[in-house]
Design brief:
This protein is mainly beta. The N and C termini lie far apart (40 Å). It contains no helices and eleven strands. Strands 2, 4, 5, 6, 9, 10 and 11 form a seven-stranded mixed sheet that branches. A four-stranded antiparallel sheet has the order 1-3-8-7, with no helix packed on it.
Length: 121
């Protein structure tokens, strides 16, 4: 049974930083690209960042480029998202996703339950 579990969310002031983590079990973690999505209240879910199966390729949405860094540790089956200079409009539920291939796409095999990030002004 595949399990995807996020952690690291919380309340932070504008301009602050958070580091999200995601562990995935029940699958061969190194065989899959991984991604972070977020969904703010009343908005559609959007992909924030993605990383290929071995970490050689990373991609970011324009809104987070230069502030967020995605990384992975395949030995620990763990995905990370370092978020710097957070802004109130980035308050959202952040989701970890297992992509259905080794390269990035929006085809998600498995979702985590999400971790809440709240940025106060």
């Amino acid at each position: 049974q595949v399990q995807v579990v996020e952690s690291g969310g919380g309340l932070v002031q504008a301009g602050g930083s958070l580091r999200l983590s995601c562990t995935a079990s029940g699958l061969t973690f190194a065989d899959y690209a991984m991604a972070w999505f977020r969904q703010a209240p009343g908005k559609e879910r959007e992909r924030v960042s993605c990383i290929s199966y071995w970490g050689a390729w990373t991609g970011y949405s324009d809104s987070v480029k230069g502030r967020f860094t995605i990384s992975r540790d395949n030995a620990r089956n763990t995905l990370y998202l370092q978020m710097n200079r957070l802004q109130p409009e980035e308050t959202a539920m952040y989701y970890c996703a297992v992509i259905d291939s080794r390269i990035c796409s929006d085809r998600v095999n498995y979702w985590g339950q999400g971790t809440q990030v709240t940025v106060s002004s």
